[in-house]
Design a protein that fits this description.
Elements lengths: L5 E3 L47 E5 L4 H12 L3 E6 L8 H16 L6 E5 L5 H10 L1 E2 L6 E2 L1 E6 L6 H6 L1 H21 L4 E7 L23 E4 L5 E4 L9 H19 L4 E7 L1 E3 L18 H9 L6 E4 L11 E2 L1 E3 H16 L7 E6 L5 E2 H12 L5 E4 L8 E2 L4 H7 L7 H14 L6
Parallel strand pairs: 1-4, 2-3, 2-7, 3-4, 7-8, 8-11, 11-16, 12-15, 13-18, 14-19
Antiparallel strand pairs: 5-6, 9-10, 14-17
Helix pairs in contact: 1-2, 1-8, 5-6, 9-11
The structure holds uridine-diphosphate-N-acetylglucosamine.
Uridine-diphosphate-N-acetylglucosamine binds next to α6, β12, α7 and β13.
GO molecular function: UDP-glucose 4-epimerase activity
Cofactor: NAD(+)
Keywords: Isomerase, NAD
Length: 436
Amino acid sequence: MSEIVFAEINSPPQSDAGSSTFDIPSYDISTPATPSSLFFDDRLGRLLREVPHNQHILVTGGLGFIGSHTTLELLKAGYNVIAIDNLSNAYESVSDRIQLLASKYHEEQGTPMPSLKHYKQDYQDIKSLIPLLEAHRTLSWDSPKSSIAGVIHFASYKAVEDSIKQPLKYYSNNVCGLIGFVETLGSFGIKTFIFSSSATVYGTLATSGAPLKEELCVHKPEGTKTDQESWSTVQPGCTGITNPYGRTKWMCEAILADLAISDPEWTIVALRYFNPIGCDSSGLLGEDPRCTPTNLLPVIVKVMTGQYSELSMFGTDWDTVDGTAVRDFIHVTDLAQGHIAALSVAMKGELRENFRTFNLGTGYGHSVLEVVETMQQVSQKTLPRKAVDRRAGDVGYCVAAADRSSDELQWTARKTLSDACADICHSLEISGLTNL
Ligand code: UD1
């Protein structure tokens, strides 16, 4: 029933016996039977998604770190998924693993496996995207309609230092690409959109040392409660974003907010990720970037696998409990499930406004040193490390206020830092990579 498709959109379609060559690839839009609702765990079961069997979710960047985990959780929750990825920072084999894990899950649950289709496709390549969207167009007398019920958009460049060196590459892909993409989606009547944003939009607001509330960074004037329990109005704009990558995320949010105002048919959610870590508990998915990693946990993994001799801890003189920087580390499976929660609320038309931002974080901070110590404890290995100067552009403290996503999406992170470290260790064990 389930199906996995590896197709180069620009390559000729696989020819069936007797069939002729087509100018555009043909897309299989068949879907297996999907029950009207599926529980994928006790918590998200509360959301009771009604997943019509003929609907699909389009996921851009569906094979990357967060994209692959979200694709897996979507399949577990009963959604048919079309994943597109240009493989610039992901591997095609990830799709097999997602398929394996989702199939196993449904086998155990006794539920039908939804369909996963994967295409090697750049989300900016509109010419190639159109045949796929055409294939999912449904009959309608008036406005365009599609069997693609929603889009989760991950595809973007995300390396901070690279963005400083090559800003136009970032503005072109992340911002210009988004404009052409949503314009095209809109013309096919696909107007439910989940955008992958980042806590980086808070810029230097993070230095306040208090959990970051969504209403501190807004795209229209918004009221917020101050410390004295009185209200003040926050004006739209950004504060002290330190790099082009961060600015692309803020600009994309602003564009999407304007789009939602101009056309009330759009339902748009911007999810502001804090620091995603860990991997699926199976150990079969993980953070496997093609580019040199700069984030803390991937660097720690490089030390654990012997590729780096030690970890450089950037800054030990921050105003924090042990002098190292504090972040809100969120397990990637929790983060992925946050997307399902947002999609479910958006598809039911239950968003408070048709553009809404949500933090995806735990609401708790851990210092860099705490992360190192937790990983040592879980792995029972010593991690060589040294203290070095602060990294340019870093802030000392960045932690989410988690109430809005809990109140409005009925979603909270459940997994701990230890869980994330244990899952990483498990993944390294089964791949035979650990070296310490
Ligand atoms: C970074 C990005 C942020 C992006 C996020 C995605 C910067 C300035 N910000 O956030 O825009 O949304 O990743 O995950 O890069 N650290 C070390 N040694 C290392 C690597 C990191 O000490 O080798 C420290 C950093 O200085 C920081 C903490 O670990 O204090 C977390 O770093 P990182 O994982 O890179 O995430 P952020 O900087 O929070």
